[in-house]
Amino acid sequence: MKKRLLTIFAGISLLLMLTPLQAAAVDRPEEAAALIERGKGFYAKEDYQRAMEAFEEAVKLAPNVSEYHVWLGRAYGRRAESTSKWRFLSALSLAGKTRESFERAVELDNTNKDALLSLFDFYLEAPGMVGGGIEKAEQLAARIEKIYPAQGARSWAAIYEKRGEFDRAGQRLRQARELEPDEVGHLLSLASFLSRRGRYDESDELYQQALQLAPESPDVWFSRGKALVRSNRHHNEARKLLERYFEADLPADATPRSEARQLLRQL
To answer: pLDDT tens, 135-157?
Structure first.
């Protein structure tokens, strides 16, 4: 009997010792998820400093969730963009953290489309001093194409356009549409590209198709409005679309309203 009691007491003692750790392990993901949602709210309001702080805390609590690192990288990137040109070193530091966050997101889940595309955009657009570079973008585009062929085609199109190889860029964008004909994002990418090349009739036709396919899509409104402003055409249509975008209920990862506001000021 005494031996049995000792065994029971030992089991209870061990349970009491483990319970706080187990509770912490259970609570941390919930706390992290709440912080991510809080950060998304700040991010949507373009309060990137507070979004960054919330995402940093979330990543500390749940360091192995790929999507959390994507959000943290986005916040770092937006904060770097909004940093004063007089705080050059601070912007460089934030850019480095952006890359590190996206790379960590891909490391944690090499099939995470958001992570792959975010890292690709960084490599393609960022200077070498912060870890960007077209060669890195090419390597990642090849990886993306193996997993997501249509997105891979669009990634290669961005590379070719940056190099000035416009025919190859257009071919790749058309390939993306062929692979996923119902994906409006591919349609918008091609329409926007054609507008940048001054091929307005083709671009307008594709934008009309996009508006018919997804008439309530803020992405369509913004892309069309931006194309019209950049080409200095159809100002009334551009204003209506951008104002509609500005007033819409947007997801947290949508193009910031401030970009629509800047375009409206050009009309």
So the answer is: 999 999 999 999 999 999 999 99
Are 230 and 223 in contact, with CB atoms under 8 Å apart? no
Taking the model in full, what pTM does it have? 0.88
Any idea what the Cα angle at residue 56 is, between residues 51 and 59, rounded to 5°? Answer: 125
User: Looking at the chain, how many residues does it have?
Assistant: 267
* CA-wise closest residue to 192 among 150, 161, 237: 161
Please enumerate in sequence order all residues whose Cβ is within 8 A of that of 252, keeping only pairs 6 or more positions apart, or say none. Answer: 40, 41, 43, 44
- The tokens for 167 are 């025919």
Domain boundaries 30-147, CATH class: mainly alpha
> What is the assigned CATH class of domain 182-267?
mainly alpha
**What residue segments make up the domains of the chain, in order of their start?**
30-147, 182-267
How many Å separate Cα 136 from the centre of its chain? 18
